[in-house]
Amino acid sequence: PVLHARTLQPVSGSDIDLQLRCSYTPDQGSTRIERVLASGTGARIVTSHDDICLIEFQVPAGQDFKLAHKDIDTILKRAQVRPLAVGVHNDRQLLQFCYTAEVVDSALKILDEAGLPGELRLRQGLALVAMVGAGVTRNPLHCHRFWQQLKGQPVEFTWQSEEGISLVAVLRKGPTESLIQGLHTSLFRAEKRIGLVLFGKGNIGSRWLELFAREQVTLSARTGFEFILAGVVDSRRSLLNYEGLDASRALAFFNDEAVEQDEESLFLWMRAHPYDDLVVL
Fold it and tell me: How many structural domains comprise the chain?
């Protein structure tokens, strides 16, 4: 659904889990409403389609592949039937153009009538998943999670729009419902960064560092929070870094890289932390 900006204002401050369905065709999917920050770049919509077709154009050997791609792109733009995604395979001299079943016949007819040298083929029964949002291709966290969710999926090709507003994966088969749910959960979960400063590196402190190094990834995945080891402090010196320390190597580098710091300087450093919360251990 396309909503006015103020449509959801009555529930904006609530914790309601909200999904919208069309009353005419409630069984044909839904839109899940998530609470994300309005600022910044990244995915705002995750979408899918389980009935996608591919027009494949095999460029003859010896022909200029880039020129063929440019010619077809011009033809499709002029006819106003731009594809949802494009697969470009230089090594196979193959171009793939993705369309819904409703549009594919028109696009195929236009390309056939253009009479370009090469072989046209039609493939049906594919699926598509995409995340859409201003600058989504420049958001490393969302891109990483997108690729993580695609792991093990029958991916035909991936594509990103020239404007950087969409990242698309075309799959050899659907359905995509479980994949979309995974993308929703992964992309739009609440992000909270927790900085950790360890005071003391004796037996207990060194044992804690060993455990944290082993469990850091699991702990973050289980809680949905990102835990960052920001510092290790002993009675005289401190090893501090807002970007995070490698817990498995912090003690090894402590003697060479830690610096003497008085209590006030240490307190001011902790007070200026960039995290959502800072925990002192």
Answer: 2
